[in-house]
Write a structure and sequence with these properties.
Distance between the termini: 78 Å
Strand order of the largest sheet: 2-8-7-4-5
Largest sheet: 5 strands, mixed
Strand content: 35-45%
Helix content: under 10%
Number of domains: 3
Oligomer: single chain
Structural class: mainly beta
Number of helices: 5
């Protein structure tokens, strides 16, 4: 009876989650891109009923799909305070055409993919086989989902001129009487790369069809890494086995999860960038390493049945886009000489899971030693090397004791637990950067890890250590970093007079998370060397929860 009541309780909790829905909003810097460029985007998670930030899900999944619903790009982002501004690199191998950029949370995958927020973007790739879009005649402009821009409610521009010289400061402001604006973005882009498009937001999700057996819960704290463990010899599920999650990194984490009756484990982790993930049993018994791990894919495998038309541009726009293609190529050549306009701002906690160690030994401070064994014996304090039952083990003693304490020691290489000490001792010392020693018992929740000895290599790649191939290890793509657009500062006279070409197609991009109590927004950026017409694009969600857009153009002479 108690189990039935708990199940019913879980059922009502699930449906109460459903009632507190979330809606994702995605804005991009423009609507037309060139293969090899980057898509600047902002994702916001809001509550449909209040338009306020939702903290139900911390992770959003972003996909760029072709017209066959094949993912060209798959990325994930961490929503800090419900928002993220970042960029996606478009592969230079994609074909010219229209693509669907969609975004959703793990919780939203319980519903129809028709509820995912999405927008159609156009990509022109001069390096692909079908380099040019279909022409529709001189008077035809047919980009998918074209809609006329509406005007932002009571939006006022101040200080924006109609003409500017190259490499000059553009300073202007805009204001609105509607202080309930949210999810606001501002972009300044070459006019031919923006097609008026102010697509309405998706309607709220209704009539959820959820069951406890297959429910995907919200990622309230971070990405959920879920999978199951199967015995390779018997093909049986491995149950009640404590598993460890770690990453090859200079700032490691360590997570534990015990497999359930279905052999499933579940971890929560917040990692940025491309890393190697390692999952292994906590038990030192090597007979437990005859297993395989199957990970659950958090990206949705369901797709909307609605389609979008092929890309078609008029002749005049194609000519202008060809100039933008030249701009992109010039900027690519000179990019290494400029300060990157995309400034990364990762929110990842860079501290190791164990904090500050009691002792850190930087290898370069000491004389070269031929083996890691001698490094341990000669220069690593509070650590002794002993052999027990034919196998080496580290024994760690406290500062005021001359003898190792009873109890275990857990050893790591670049944040990954390694039970086989001889594999560590076989590392060539030239690969080692430092050794951390925690010579007190370290506790993680209810788990006593004992003392810790942690080896770090110079390149964070485990050096030349021969990794145990029985242990699950694979490349893991973490979150994209958040980025801030940084315009070149031509107030610097040397930079202003430099002969380095600046042909940016995007002069500015920024997100303003919330306009609450902020009546005026001030913006500054510098023009480039391109003599062209540019469009200021402002997009946001008004107090009625509707998307509105506004544009205003100027010319760089």
């Amino acid at each position: 009876m108690r189990k039935i009541l708990l199940t019913l309780g879980a059922f009502f909790i699930i449906h109460s989650f459903a009632l507190s829905q979330e809606k994702l909003v995605i804005n991009t810097d423009r609507t037309i891109y060139i293969g090899g460029e980057s898509i600047w985007f902002t994702v916001s998670n809001i509550k449909p009923e209040t338009k306020q930030t939702s903290n139900l899900s911390k992770v959003a999944y972003i996909e760029l799909l072709n017209n066959a619903n094949m993912p060209v790009v798959q990325e994930k982002v961490y929503l800090k305070d419900g928002h993220i501004t970042s960029l996606i690199d478009i592969p230079d191998s994609v074909s010219t055409g229209n693509y669907l950029l969609r975004v959703y949370t793990r919780w939203m995958t319980n519903y129809s993919p028709d509820n995912y927020e999405s927008k159609v973007i156009s990509i022109v790739n001069p390096f692909a086989n079908n380099s040019l879009p279909k022409g529709g005649g001189d008077n035809n402009v047919a980009i998918a989902n074209n809609m006329s821009d509406s005007s932002l409610s009571k939006l006022f521009f101040r200080g924006l001129k109609s003409n500017y010289k190259h490499r000059k400061l553009v300073s202007f402001s805009f204001s609105t009487d509607d202080l309930a604006w949210s999810s606001l973005t501002v972009s300044v882009v070459k006019k031919c790369l923006y097609s008026p498009m102010c697509k309405p937001l998706k309607k709220s999700i209704v009539n959820p069809d959820l069951s406890i057996e297959n429910i995907k819960v919200p990622e309230y704290k971070g990405e959920i890494i879920k999978g199951r463990v199967i015995d390779l010899r018997s093909n049986d599920l491995i149950t009640k086995e404590k598993m460890m999650l770690s990453f090859v990194s200079q700032n490691p984490i360590l997570k534990f999860s015990e497999t359930d009756a279905n052999g499933e484990f579940i971890f929560e982790a917040n990692r940025f960038g491309r890393q190697e993930m390692v999952i292994q049993p906590y038990s030192p018994d090597t007979t437990k390493l005859h297993y395989k791990i199957e990970l659950e894919n958090n990206f949705s495998g369901n797709y909307s049945k609605s389609s979008f038309p092929e890309l078609s541009l008029d002749t005049a726009q194609v000519n202008q886009i060809n100039k933008a293609i030249v701009n992109m190529q010039i900027n690519t050549i000179y990019a290494s000489h400029f300060v990157n306009v995309a400034q990364a701002d990762s929110i990842e906690n860079m501290e190791s899971f164990y904090g500050q160690p009691e002792n850190t030994i930087v290898i370069d401070k000491y004389i070269d030693l031929p083996t890691t064994e001698e490094v341990v014996r000669e220069i690593v304090p509070y650590v002794s090397l002993r052999k027990s039952k034919g196998q080496y083990e580290f024994r760690v003693y406290e500062e005021k004791s001359l003898y190792p304490k009873e109890g275990g020691t857990l050893s790591f290489v670049d944040g990954v637990p390694v039970r086989d000490i001889e594999r560590i001792l076989a590392i060539d010392p030239k690969y080692l950067e430092k050794v951390d020693v925690v010579n007190l018992n370290y506790f993680m929740k209810d788990e006593n890890l004992g003392r810790l000895v942690l080896f770090y290599t110079r390149n964070s790649d485990m050096g030349n250590m021969e990794f145990d191939h029985r242990i699950f290890r694979q490349v893991y793509n973490g979150y994209l970093n958040s980025y801030t657009y940084s315009s070149p500062d031509y107030s610097n006279e040397e930079l202003y007079n430099s002969r380095l070409a600046d042909y940016r197609n995007v002069l500015y991009y920024a997100s303003i998370a919330d306009l609450q109590n902020k009546k005026q927004v001030d913006l500054e950026f510098y023009t480039s060397d391109d003599t062209s017409e540019y469009t200021v694009v402002i997009t946001g969600i008004n107090s009625q929860g509707e998307r509105e857009c506004a544009t205003k153009s100027f010319v760089v002479e």
